[in-house]
Amino acid sequence: MTKPMYLYPLWVRLWHLANALMFLSLIATGLSLQYSSIEYTIIPFQYAVSIHNITGIVLCTGYIFFLFANRFTSNGNYYQFHLKGMLNRTFIQLRYYSYGIFKNEEAPFPISADRKFNPLQKISYVFVMYFLMPIVVITGVALFFPDMLPDKIVGIVGIHFIDLIHIISGFTLSIFMVVHIYFCTIGKTPLANFKSMINGWY
Amino acid sequence: MKKLNLIVLLLVLSIFLFSQEETEKPIEHSPENSKCFNCHGSPMYSFYNEVLERNVTKRMNPYFLVDSVSFYDQNHSSFVCIDCHSYDYRTFPHDNELQMDLMPSCFDCHEGDDATAEYQFEKIDHEFIESVHSTKHSDEFTCWMCHNPHTYKINARDNENIKETIIYDNNICLSCHADYNKYQLITSEKNSNIIEKHDWLPNQIAHFTSVRCIECHSHSTDDILVAHHILPKDEAVKKCVECHSSNSMLMASLYKFQAQENRRNYGFFNAAILSDSYMIGANRNLYLNILSGAIFGIVSLLILIHAILRIILK
Q1: Which residues of B touch A160 (CB under 8 A)?
Q2: Complex-level ipTM
Q3: Domain at A69, CATH number
Q4: Is the pLDDT of residue B276 over 70?
């Protein structure tokens, strides 16, 4: 029995909770807007627009807060890469998820105070937080000002181009969320990681 | 060989020059019209007053003013003024009784006219009679109220630039609905502020510049290209999904002509809209839909298999 560690400070948990709620709302309203129909309505269009806009602003504010917090607290260390041996470490983690886990092998990179994320988590979290999130946030903000967008970008109507990028990055983030939730069930118990994200202790 | 090249070059050049001459053929300005435009083409006009025995300059009634440049760039640019106005207008000063003349209507020429059959004037008239412009106003509300015979030119089927068509068509509505003085000429009702009336509409500027007023304020049918059945304000479209959906009603109104010419392209629903604009809910890509559905399905399946194996092999 390992000694419990306080891994998730309050600000991380609150930010994570807000992020999760905003994500769910944005996915639901985004899908409702993209597939709006006269025959069937999940969320009425005008409400979906308002909710999507408001939750988008909250997510955007939360993201800016996350960037500052990661820059000025030790939480940012978990997102730092060591390129040397990264490929090998990632392969080991992949092998564990696709084979070792079924053989009841020990996790190759167990969670510790210095290593909150395994190599695969680190790659995916960095990709999500420092690549996909800026894209979805910037394109989302741009869509608030459709009149200011260029008429054409690479031969496509400006607003359509920006929206395509917004939708594709949003969809990729949705897929990440599904995978993220499933992988969170891989802990000491299926609910252990969820409990940790609520009380902060691992 | 050089001679042959020269002949070919000259032939190509002559074809080019000939075609240039064809396309840039100047409109013949009738000398008869020039006499009218001498006075009616400018805000001030002068004439020799025989009683006073001197030249007199007067202001032209703004409603009798005709911009000659616009006149020669419109549907009836080949007309001479007296085709529609009395022959007696050729004499000046004009006889006062001429003001009692009835102006011809569109149907005086176009009714049963084979040359303009494609515009379906009879159906337009039928729609107009059902519209609020007809039911709420007297017979004085004629085609000319919206389609100034001196400046009107068809747009929806001629202009490939949808944005220009939108501005042109909306200006027709705004010429009364955003002009207090002109509006009061036909009604004693207060002209409401269009911006305030559309406060509920999100992204007002985007909507006002991307669709025409008639998209929401008229009943569109398949019979004619531009709807003339203007609805009472209570019956205007207010449901976003009427346009923002895969079976967008805009394809049957604003983009009707383009839609007829250019059916769904490259897997995009409502592809015609994409040439000038973009509308969430209406523009979807079939292939991206399939791809995203497939990715989501594969990921869900992999998760399910992984979870089952974890439970079985534990």
Answers
A1: 274, 277-278, 283
A2: 0.91
A3: 1.20.950
A4: no
